[in-house]
TrEMBL record:
Pfam families, sorted: Lcl_C, LPAM_1
Residues passing through the membrane, by range: none
Key words, A-Z: Signal
Protein's name according to its UniProt entry: Type IV secretion system putative lipoprotein virB7
Residues covered by the Lcl C-terminal domain: 305-441
Length: 484
């Protein structure tokens, strides 16, 4: 069966404009006997016991491990010294038990609380509280510290919470005191193996969690219910597509029948074996939709979208009309509302081949939503995992250049290799690495065309603030929606 694609991690990134995953930077990790690095700051909380352990989370597991640089905060103040320069690029944790500072927190006395501060690549002035914990957890969505803070700020303002212009510089803003406290109580209510996921999901769902984060009094039951709710939302979808592989390997070639001595192959298990679809020939269940979103017969010759009956996602189908903005060969610069903005060179690069006047992904998203393609106005960029789930590894279709196409061409006939030649389509998935320069965007790509089908890597995008952009980036786009 198809496994969930795990986002790749990298240890170093090119500090220039952009480049691929094989770029190497100078050795900047590990112990350095010539220097002693320090981290200092303050744990700001009225709800923690006096004994507060502060450590550098080098293993990125939200736990203070014995091998990690550790100290004990005195009156909230801490100072950590280490010969390992990596401490400047990792989150800082504060671990203690909840103190019964008021009636609300009495129920959680002696519960472990873990708070965090994001890695800001500086030695002093670190603040650890509930708000910094929220920002640090938000980085789990592939954001750097500054993007994560801006995202939290934007979501808070959406629900009427006014914050300082620079949230990272004003983590102790008294206007956020109630939210700060409730995040600390949430941390005390969550188990160690779910804490980071729960708080990361809270960061993602802030507008929907308005009542919780602004509550003056939270009952024990409310906290427990919120933890369970956020935990459930953090879990990946359990229903997805199979690989599409229906043949068996006999040691030399693929055959249509099982081979003795080669048991438990992919074709033996999963939807491809137990729930094969007569139209697709494997476990994929796909339905063609017209421009209004109406289901069409499988032999329809014109359609605009495809609904995945397993995941219930609706996918855009690219057009074969060169005059359409949805033309299969049109490529775009990446632009995400409230997030990534394209470099001017990215836009110029896209304009060389895309003459539609719609040259960024945000412009394209706005267009298909305004037109209500297939009766839908909630189109968005897919995640990398959503793209991966759509790949049919049993596909044998090839394009005019002989490249293997990773989507079922009966439903997705206009899949392009793109300028890189690997079928890269923009997604909303990013990652953040320890030595990533400030405001550098690191994009996860997925090979959807070519013999390297399913391979993934990272691409550094040009920083908008840089005057130069030596390697501008453009890609195709295929929008997705949860449907009507």
């Amino acid at each position: 069966m198809k496994k969930t694609l795990l986002t790749l991690t990298i240890a170093t990134l090119l500090a220039g404009c952009n480049g691929g995953s094989d770029n190497k930077a100078s050795n900047t990790t590990g112990p350095d006997s010539k220097l002693n690095y320090t981290l200092s700051g303050e744990v700001q909380s009225n709800y923690l016991a006096q004994d507060i352990t502060v450590c550098v989370d080098l293993t990125e597991d939200w736990i203070c491990n014995p091998s990690e640089p550790t100290t004990t905060a005195k009156s909230g103040l801490f100072n950590i010294a280490s010969m390992n320069k990596d401490i400047l690029h990792a989150r800082i944790l504060a671990v203690s038990t909840l103190n019964a500072a008021d009636n609300q927190s009495k129920a959680y006395t002696n519960n472990t609380v873990v708070l965090a501060a994001p890695p800001l690549q500086k030695e002093s002035g670190h603040i650890i509280n509930g708000i910094s914990t929220l920002i640090s957890a938000n980085m789990g969505h592939g954001l750097n510290p500054h993007e994560a803070a801006r995202d939290v700020k934007a979501k808070l303002e959406k629900i009427g919470v006014t914050t300082s212009s620079d949230l990272l510089a004003n983590l102790g803003d008294p206007r956020l005191a109630t939210i700060d406290k409730n995040i600390q109580l949430l941390s005390a209510s969550a188990k160690a193996d779910q804490r980071s996921r729960v708080i990361a999901t809270l960061a993602k769902e802030l507008p929907q969690q308005k009542a919780f984060i602004q509550a003056e009094n939270l009952t024990e039951q409310t906290l427990a219910d919120t933890v369970n709710q956020l935990e459930q939302k953090s879990m990946p979808r359990l229903v997805g597509n199979d690989t599409g592989v229906t043949q068996f390997f006999n040691g030399a070639v693929l055959t249509d029948t099982p081979a003795a001595g080669f048991p438990l192959q992919d074709a033996n298990i999963g939807f491809d074996a137990t729930d094969k679809n007569s139209h697709s020939g494997n476990g994929f269940k796909l339905t063609k939709l017209d421009a209004k979103g109406k289901a069409l017969p499988d032999n329809a010759t014109e359609w605009s979208c495809v609904r995945d009956e397993r995941t219930k996602l609706v996918w855009e189908v690219k057009s074969n009309d060169p005059k359409s903005p949805r033309w299969k060969k049109n490529e775009f610069a990446l632009q995400i509302k409230g997030g990534v903005q394209p470099h001017s060179e990215d836009i110029k690069y896209a304009q060389k081949t895309n003459k539609s006047g719609i040259n960024t992904t945000e412009q394209y998203q706005d267009m298909v939503n305004k037109e209500q393609l297939c009766g839908i106005n909630t189109w968005r960029l897919p995640t990398l995992n959503e793209q991966f789930d759509l790949l049919d590894f049993g596909s044998t279709a090839k394009d005019a250049d002989g490249n293997l196409i990773g989507l079922n061409t009966h439903y997705f006939p206009n899949t392009e290799a793109g300028y890189e030649g690997y079928g890269w389509y923009w997604s909303s998935s990013f990652m953040h690495a320890a030595y990533q320069p400030k405001d550098m965007h690191v994009y996860n790509y997925l090979d959807q065309v070519s013999d390297s089908l399913g391979d993934s890597g990272v691409q550094n995008l040009c920083k908008q603030a840089n005057a130069e952009c030596d390697y501008p980036t453009k890609m195709n786009v295929r929008m997705v929606s949860q449907g009507k």
